[in-house]
Amino acid sequence: MGASFLNEPKSIGLFLDLLKQLIRVPSVTGAEHSFLIYIKRELEELGIQTEHYDGLLVAKGSKPLSGMLSAHIDRHGIICTGPNEFQFAAFLAKNRSDLRGNSLSEQTYQQIAKRYVNQNVIAYEPYNGSYLGMGRIKDAFIKEEINNLIFSIEGLNHLLPSTPVAFMDRLVQKDELISAQLDNVISAAIIIFLYQNGFSGTAFFTAQEEAGKSWRFVYEWFRKNSITTDKLIVLDTSPYENREEADKQLVVLRNKDANAKFKSPLLKELKKLCKKHKITYSCKDEFIAKKNHLRVEQGLKPISIGSTELGRIVMESNGSIQGATLQIPTTGYHTVEETASIKSIEAILFILSSLYLEEKI
Predict the structure, then answer these.
(1) Region 75-91: what's the mean pLDDT?
(2) Tens of pLDDT along 173-231?
(3) Residue 351: phi, psi to the nearest 5?
(4) Is 10-74+171-356 assigned to CATH 3.40.630.10?
(5) Torsion 344-256-206-213 (CA) sign
(6) What are phi and psi of 344, to 5 degrees?
(7) How far is Cα 178 from Cα 341, in angstroms, rounded to an integer?
(8) At residue 283, what are phi and psi to the nearest 5 degrees?
(9) Residue 216 in contact with residue 82, Cβ under 8 Å?
(10) Strand 177-180 versus strand 202-206 pairing type
(11) Helices 33-45 and 185-196 meet at what angle, rounded to 10?
(12) What is the mean pLDDT of the chain?
């Protein structure tokens, strides 16, 4: 994989140790409260000021306007919706008002139902994270009448409606790759790691991104504080079908999504930084456009270029809030085997430390 971008070889080990801790704390879409409290405690131990709102944790360093980062912290999971009835949390009927059908999540979830069969799961109390039992998924299938995934789970027939059920997960490292349900706990870990190493700006940890709602929490915070910016960086993972596709770039950027164009000077700065340090990158919108050209030639329906948290914020703010996305290419999207290269993580940490830290990590 070549030389590390990081100054200290031990840095990536410390980062992975932090990621292992965070992965073990469940954070199902719509039931993220206990995970937000966990992050809040981690940051306050570092002396970072935090503000906890409905669906949002805001962290403020000593120079709040020196940089702004955002990451959603919900992970796909299951909600008990009735007597021994379990549905995919992000696509419950009550969440669909914010989903427009143009996100990669919505386009792919029907294809991955069977990946969850035989997966071990744990139920937890949504406010304090208390353990409520363990089960195993026996079957998963699309129920067209409610347009959602239904799960058959053994061992959890005692649960009450609205109880979250998370996929059991742990970080697996093999050679230069790591696997877990990385979307998007890995970005939360990156932000905390930056604070541990001197980041002094503002960070937003948002809930319910997989249900299309996270943009609302960030946008509302900007509005009620009468703040605008053109330098918001939204961190996430970006799915690819196989390692050959994923390994063509270390980081993924965007010129636009299905909602808006990204016009922040940060986008040019990120591209320039990548070129200077020979960090391979691609723009996801351009990648999908090329793919759609081939699909049309083959008589297939084009796929959406995707909807992002940043795109919704830019659109709803009429461009008064702008920024850039910075993503890690992964495979195995929305499973506990989502895989990323360590080199990509090092590249992201290098880029962010170059922008925001006095010393490289």
Answers:
(1) 93
(2) 999 999 999 999 999 999 999 999 999 999 999 999 988 899 999 999 999 999 999 99
(3) -60, -50
(4) yes
(5) negative
(6) -65, -40
(7) 6
(8) -105, 125
(9) no
(10) unpaired
(11) 10
(12) 92
Those residues whose C-beta lies under 8 Å from the C-beta of residue 235, and which sit 6 or more positions away, are 69, 70, 71, 184, 187, 190, 191, 325, 326, 327, 348
Counts for the chain of helices (H) and strands (E), in that order: 10, 17
What would the pLDDT profile of 251-278 be if each residue is shown by its tens digit? 999 999 999 999 999 999 999 999 999 9
CA atoms within 13 A on the CB side of 122: 14
Q: Can you tell me the distance from the alpha carbon of 251 to that of 253, in angstroms, rounded to the nearest whole number?
A: 7
What pLDDT shows up at residue 146? Answer: 83
DSSP label of 141: E
The Cα 201–Cα 40 span in angstroms is 16
DSSP run (H or E) holding 139: strand 131-143
Q: Which of 183, 166, 150, 197 shows the shortest CA–CA distance to 19?
A: 183
Segments making up each domain of the chain, as ranges: 10-74+171-356, 78-167
Beta carbons of 79 and 165 less than 8 angstroms apart: yes
**Residue position matching structure tokens 């970080």:** 171
Residue 69 neighbours by CB under 8 Å, 6+ apart: 191, 194, 201, 202, 203, 204, 232, 233, 234, 235, 352
Compute φ and ψ for 175, nearest 5 degrees. 55, -120
- Neighbour-count burial for 343-354, b at 16+ CB within 10 Å, e otherwise: bbbbbbbbbbbb
Identify the band that residue 94 occupies on the pLDDT scale cut at 50, 70 and 90: low
Residue 51 pLDDT greater than 50, yes or no: yes
Nearest to 235 by CA among 310, 171, 331: 310
State residue 297's pLDDT score.
Answer: 92
332 has pLDDT over 70: yes
Helix (H) or strand (E) holding 176: none
* Residue 307, phi then psi, degrees to nearest 5: -115, 135
Cα-based torsion angle of the residue sequence 100, 166, 178, 305 in order, rounded to the nearest 10 degrees: 0
Instruction: Please state whether the peptide bond connecting residue 292 to the residue before it is cis, i.e. omega within 30 degrees of 0.
Output: no
What is the per-residue pLDDT for 108?
59
